[in-house]
Structures are given as structure tokens and as C-alpha cells.
Amino acid sequence: MKPDRIVVGCDDEQAALNMRALYAPFQRNHDRLILMDVRSAELTKYAANAMLATRIGFMNELANLAEKLGADIENVRRGIGSDPRIGYDFLYAGAGYGGSCFPKDVKALIKTAAADADMRLQVLTAVEAANDAQKHVLGTKVKARFGADLRGKHFALWGLAFKANTDDMREATSRQVIQDLLAAGATVTAYDPVAMDEARHCFPNEPHLTYAANQSAALANADALIIVTEWKEFRSPDFDAIKATLKNPVIFDGRNLYDPALVRSMGFEYFAIGR
After folding, report:
1. Do 122 and 226 reside in the same domain of the chain?
2. Which stretches in the chain have pLDDT values below 70?
3. Long-range contacts of 111-114 (CB under 8 A, 24+ apart)
4. pLDDT score, position 26
5. Rounded distance, CA 75 to CA 261, Å?
6. Measured between alpha carbons, how far is 214 from 123 in angstroms, rounded to an integer?
7. Which site from 90, 148, 174, 255 is most exposed, i.e. has the minimal number of CB atoms within 10 Å?
8. pTM score > 0.85 for this model?
9. Are residues 117 and 76 in the same domain?
10. Same domain assignment for residues 103 and 206
């Protein structure tokens, strides 16, 4: 309702006037309509999402490097984000992006460049590869802590949707995390406020994946907690209850929801992304 820009691709003068009239109620204070040719508008849409995906992929790779070097990616984020040329948006490290837009638009640009222009987009090809690898980071951390063979291990997983406030599981990181855990022999109990029906469609007839009625119930008999989606209700949990319920006080946080020092001071092993 309050767009920061309205990009319109149009090659007809009357159509341009109609579009300007259509969008007039949504830009009372400032003219936010940007008119351009159709091809440029199409490319603008894909380029915007590809740029945001690139920022996320870049920060995820820096987070992995920060862990190896003993740095904290949150400090790095604040340090570089304070530069007005960079800014803070889409600089949060995590377990990989998903959804309907970023993966699709990155793939579309790569394919369009190859098919229509005989070009290889090297940066976006790297972004796609980095994001695919990032989705395995949580599974790798779990196996580093509990061993490559996870038979007999059971994990609680909070968050199935690709991001909070949606039930969308297209390209969701949770799908890869679950697949990695099940492939290693583990069992999983998952909870998501709205996406569990969608998860049942994504994992039909999977006996080693069950669903809990709430986030607390998901913890029962679990060897550790894995957080994949940044739902608001996960941000301030009862850590005492978590510690009392888990077999081991271990949290793998794929969205860096908590202060590492605080969680570790409560007796948890806390594995975040780049912290």
C-alpha cells in the first residue's frame, strides 16, 4: 500500500497514462512511478531479487569464514552496515534463503543469460552454489557434534516455512535439513505455527518425521533443538524448560536468534551461524 517504487514496463503512451492513473492513489506524497521499456522493467524485477540474494549469500559465506577465524558475524554486520553505501538490509547470516522469488529469479537470470545472450553470469552462479551449500550447514553442524551416523538420535526442529509469517515451503531450508538428518539415520519431530500441513505434502509417508502440537511438545525425547525459521514466538523461549526437556542441552540456531553468551551462560551448547 506504500511502495518505495513502482516499476512499470510500457511501450504504449496511452497504457502508460492508464497505469499512472491506476497507481496514483498509492503515491499521494511522492511520485514513485518509474516508467521504462518492457525489457528493462522485466530485468529490473529479476535484478532486484538477485541483488538481495547476493547480499544474503555473501553474508552467509562471511559467517562461515568468521567461525573459522574466531570472529563474530554480528559484529561484522554492524560494522559494514554502518557504511551508508552498504546499509543494514539483507545482511543477516543464516541457513540459506528459500521461497518463491529469490531462488527462482536467480535461476531465471542465469538461464536467460545462457540461452538468450550466450553469457555465463559468474556472480549469480556462485550465489546459487553458495546458497545450495548453506542449506547443508545445520546438518553438518549436527553431525560434527553427534557423529556422522545419527541412528538412534532424535531431534526437535522449530520452523518449516522458508521465512516467518508464511506457510510457504518452496525451496525452504528446513527441507534440506530434514533430508540430511533422515539420510544420516535420525528421527525428527517438527513444529511450525502454520506450515505443518504443507510439510506433510512435502514429506508424504515419511515415518521418521513427526509433528508436534506446539514448540514445547516438539522437544520431548530430543537429543537437541534445531531452529530453522525465525518465527517471533521462538525469540523468547523458556530456556529452563528447554534444558529440562532435552536429553542434552544443545541448540543449533540457523537464524541467530539468541545472544550466544547468554545462552551459553545458562549451560547450553549453542551452535549458531558465524557467531
Report:
1. no
2. none
3. 112/46
4. 87
5. 14
6. 41
7. 148
8. yes
9. yes
10. no
Looking at the structure, tell me whether residues 95 and 124 fall in a common domain.
yes
Provide the pLDDT for residue 126. 98
Rounded Cα–Cα distance for residues 65 and 74 (Å): 13
* 125 and 191 share one domain: no
Domain range enclosing 62: 42-133
**Could you tell me if 153 and 197 lie in one domain?**
yes
Per-residue model confidence (pLDDT) at position 236: 94
pLDDT at residue 49 in the model: 97
- DSSP state string for 56-97: HHHHHHHHHHHHHHT--HHHHHHHHHTSTTT-STT----S--
Would you please indicate which residues are annotated as catalytic (active-site) residues? 101
Taking the C-alpha atoms of residue 14 and residue 110, their distance in angstroms, rounded to an integer, is: 34
Domain at 262, CATH number: 3.40.50.720
The residues pairing with 154 across neighbouring beta strands, listed in sequence order, are 187
- Sign of the CA dihedral 181, 183, 188, 194? positive
